[in-house]
Design goal:
It is built from eight helices and ten strands. The chain has 241 residues and is of the alpha+beta class. Helix 7 runs antiparallel to helix 8. It starts with 7 loop residues before the first strand and ends in a 10-residue tail after the last strand.
Length: 241
Amino acid sequence: MIPLDDAVTARLESHGERFEVLIDPDAALEIKRGEFEGDLEDVIAAEDVFENASRGDRPAEADLEEVFGTTDPLEIIPEVVERGEIQITAEQRKEMEEQKHNALINKIARNAVNPQMDNAPHPPERIERALEEAGFSVDPMEPIESQVDDALDALRPVIPIRFDEITVAVNVPADYAGSAQAKIRQYGDLEREEWQADGSWIGVVTFPAGMQNDFYDLVNEETSGEAETSIVKEKDDLKTR
């Protein structure tokens, strides 16, 4: 279950009665769209159905049976969300906007590059300033994934930007290969790898281009700066030597 402070109220009025449930806002939107695939018990603040959630009042079981054909909260909750309305306070909306705003900036920063600066990553601060200049506002009731394209359209007149991936070959000396390769291979999609006769490891990893500075920091930290890296320009030519 989630903390009560993180939940919003979904309300359904039917047969002259009111039914309310407390649920995570993102999960509520997924249920409304028919996209929810998680465990309901993980996204609710109470395994209960209320007549008035703020007071803790509960409807009569006879009313639940009449409207939903059951008294089981786990069967009723999704129906209340799907058929009802999601209620959020001004404070909840502001907090959700801030969370979604930060999440959107981080997602763009991790995936986007500046094509006019040799595909260098855009710092989050630059993306945030550009979004403000473009007048783009995040919708707290929509998932981040569905807002990225609109955000990019707003950003392009302000800064040169595009989503891209980068493929990097890494040669890790034998002294660091055991622990370093485990972390490097998890950073993105491992295209190729090869253990050398001297115990060193060569791997080729593809990941969002905006994450390249973090990737180089990881490699340097894990190998005390002794690893060699090179950008692979053509993935069709991937080879480890």
